[in-house]
Amino acid sequence: MNNNLTTTNQNSKIALAKSKGLLDITNKILSKNKDTWIENLFQWADQNDIPNHTWVKDEDFNEGGYHIGIPRDTTKLLSMEILRLHDLKIDLLADEIFNLIQLKELSIKNCALKNLSNKISKLTNLENLYLAKNNLYQLPSELQHLSKLKKIHLHTNNFLDIPEILYGMKSLSHMCINGCNIREISPNIKKLVTLHEFYIHSNQLEKLPYELFELKNLKDLRLHDNNLITLPNNINNLTNLEFFTLHKTNLKSLPDNIIALNKIKYLFIHECLALSITNQQAEWINNLKIKSEYIY
Prior knowledge:
The chain is an alpha/beta fold. The protein is built from 3 helices and 11 strands. The strands form 2 sheets. The chain has a 9-stranded parallel beta sheet, with no helix packed on it.
């Protein structure tokens, strides 16, 4: 046998063995790291009294309820696409939560959350983000990396303004930021051309930017329970608007061209004590499904 060929074969076998050994070591390290962060997450969940993926009955949900909590089973943890943590005393989320990159929905509700980690940028599959009833006053700029985000709920937090980062979220179709202390809306709202529902009621708004009424895809606009006195005259641009709430405001009149909104199905204008409407507007209103009950 050729000695050179024998040597070459032996060297190849040694190189292959080393490569296989290196791959085994790498897999063990990755597996160990994976196990470590999962164990850390389970430990954090136990320390903060987070339930073990408990079913909660709720007739308002299509399925008749929903799961809350963190499963203590690795397989379930890594396969779930929805994580809900509600009514807990946690002001900061464990960093390990942001390793759950398969999540499409993250709901942290009524948990006294003070800050949202910039590690949320890792959740690139996230479509729905619910952070209602917490103590947030700002959002991380890394939110911009969530290119699939469609819905964000931020109501009942400590925001004084709409976080600037949200104006760059071009995938957003639904934004809810009511019940805060917001006094104005930036003209940058014009960037949210995909917005279909915008809930900014129960704040401290005194006026609205012209740019808001350039969002022609809006179907549901909730402005009630603010300090509004007037509405911009370009309101007729909201040609797809179907649901419009203006009750409990200080409006004195409605723009004449509001009657051009021919897709309006529901208009809420009760408890506008200073409001005066024209005969033409009154006729238009009579053809709508005007509501007198409260909408929150």
